[in-house]
TrEMBL record, chain A:
Protein name as it appears in the record: Vang-like protein
Any one GO CC term of the record: plasma membrane
Pfam families per UniProt: Strabismus
Domain of life per record: Eukaryota
Keywords: Cell membrane, Membrane, Transmembrane, Transmembrane helix
Chain segments annotated as transmembrane: 109-131, 151-170, 182-203, 218-240
Name of the encoding gene: VANGL1
Family in the record: Belongs to the Vang family.
Membrane topology of the entry: Multi-pass membrane protein
Entry keyword annotation includes Membrane: yes
Ranges of Basic residues composition bias in the record: 18-34
Automatic annotation (TrEMBL), chain B:
Gene3D superfamilies in alphabetical order: 2.30.42.10
Gene Ontology biological process: cell-cell adhesion; establishment or maintenance of epithelial cell apical/basal polarity; neurotransmitter receptor transport postsynaptic membrane to endosome; neurotransmitter receptor transport, endosome to postsynaptic membrane; receptor clustering; regulation of signal transduction; Wnt signaling pathway
Gene behind this protein: TAX1BP3
Organism: Esox lucius (Northern pike)
Region of interest (Disordered), ranges: 39-59
InterPro entries given in the database record: PDZ, PDZ_sf, Synaptic_Scaffolding_LAP-MAGUK
GO molecular function: protein kinase binding
Record keywords, A-Z: Acetylation, Cell membrane, Cytoplasm, Membrane, Nucleus, Phosphoprotein, Wnt signaling pathway
Domain PDZ per the UniProt entry, residue ranges: 15-112
Record protein name field: Tax1-binding protein 3
Record localization: Cell membrane; Cytoplasm; Nucleus
Topological category with respect to the lipid bilayer: Peripheral membrane protein
This protein's GO CC annotations: adherens junction; basolateral plasma membrane; cytoplasm; nucleus; postsynaptic density; postsynaptic membrane
Amino acid sequence: MDTESTYSGYSYYSGRSRGSHRHGERSRDRHKSHSKDGSRSEKSVTINAPPAEPLLGDAAARGEEVQDDNWGETTTAVTGTSEHSLSQEDIVRITKDLEDSVGLDCRRYFTLTLSVVLGLLVFLTPLAFLALPHLLWPEKLQACGTACEGLFISVAFKLLILLFAVWALFFRAPRAGLPRVFVFRALLAVLVLLFVISYWLFYGVRILDSQDENYQGIVQYAVSLVDALLFIHYLAIVLLELRQLQPAFSVCVTRATDGETRHYNLGQLSIQRAALAIIENYYRDFPVHNPALLTASKSRAAKHLAGLKVYNVDGEFPMTPSTGPGNNAATGLAQSQSRAMIAAAARRRDTSHNELYYEEAEHERRVRKRKARLVVAVEEAFTHIKRTQEEELKKAPGDVMDPREAAQAIFPSMARALQKYLRTTRQQHCHSMESIQQHLAFCITNNMTPKAFLESYLNPGPTLQYGRERWLGRQWTLISEASVTSGLKEGALFLLKCIDFSLVVTAKRIPYIQLSEEFIDPKSHKFVLRLQSETSV
Amino acid sequence: MSFIPGQPVTAVVQRIEIRKLRQGEHLILGFSIGGGIDQDPGQNPFSEDKSDKGIYVTRVTPGGPAEVAGLMMGDKVMQVNGWDMTMVTHDQARKRLTKKNEDVVRLLVTRKSLEQAVRHSMM
């Protein structure tokens, strides 16, 4: 009976067409299977398949089909604890999270203690330089004249300025944890350490040992130390803050799952710092990653491969892919099989483009219809409440509600339409009921129109707009072939992997621009009518 | 020589047949033209009506085929070998006159003196 049937992978279609309904499926596919069988019979390649195979293929395909059927409806990207966060929460919240979490992070504390020790050393050194002579040889010391006391004031104020400057530059909540050490900071710390050590050495040898009496010289020495520290701070500002401000590279960031692409201009940064800048921009610019939208292309890809199976009539079962690089014969076999499959796939008349076209048109129509119903429902709901003024409150103390109660009162009338719309656009797992009600209360409080309320549901916003469980701020991995502390170069490529998607980043240098000047005299703008042209023939 | 839009143009014309002269690889006629619907008609020194955008003869080289055939400066060219020249661009006029496969061009030209001559002869 099956000598005429073509590719055994479709036997479950043919099985269905013969009336055995094994599982519920879309009626459209049933119609399709009829047409497919009909059209294929004249082009069939007769393969004498062993009779056990159809059942195997059947079960496997059926299992796949079941998974495909329900996958879009029940998938959830994260297991969310329902947190209410609706407004635009900043990256600062993420760092607060970092600080709140119990620090098993030894490296962070190590860095913190090192920097605190260095800071204390730096600040106490000039004071020590000034105080030690008074403590060790007070009787030999020359009295401090006016110039010397003037220098005291200078030391005091410079130290104060240095304190403020260091606080402004370094004492900030850490934005992020980078994989490798921040090279410039480490270099600066080493420089400061060496500097202070060399000053101490000099002080120890030339002043402490010889017990110098010239106190003014000592004070001037301390002032020179503080001056040099201020200059090192200037160097720190230039290296850490200013150098990367001038744009030098244009990076192209593409999300691997759905192709969203953005371009940013960055300065001369190391790869890890560039990655940090890109991630911060990602949270602002890219629409939120919605895995439910990707199932359509996956199911289409599955259908492409499901149609063909290769059978080797020489007796081997080549169903498993080639194992290991040492198996040359098997790899050769597998390669020829895959080539045969590709050739067969190219030859058969594939109507999946038709299906895609009509499915997309239908989906768009459905979305538009639901959107129209939603907009009308929301507009009607908003007309049910109105803001009361102070005087009216005194006059008619009826059923006065605060925003949250008002939101709860009008929510049921629009809930169904909103739920249906979210289901159609596959966003239903991004918004929980509480978050919707909170957003509604927020809009009511701020006198927003229904259109403003709906904006966050009609267009997918940036990731930060959604609940905290979607941020995944701690799950980023930087994958790079070059060392992550090396600088960005022309053609640099690295990946930023989050849990279920990744960002592909390529860098290109901004071209050198040569601008030339052309001067136009304002008096040179003169016009005449077009003259008669004369042609000789 | 003015025209009323929508009405056929009537003019007294003279038929002039010019034989092209071969000079090197060019065939020349020996005159220069000006005017056209893409040109500025106000600059035309020969036209009576300064909105006339027709093709006018601006110069005739002495001794050339055009002078021999009787073309005069200031003539308005109405037709060339049957092609109309009253509503053409300057470049189209040049092309119609300088077709390489034609040795002879037959022009219909009009000038003010023609009309006066006809009137005189009728009186």
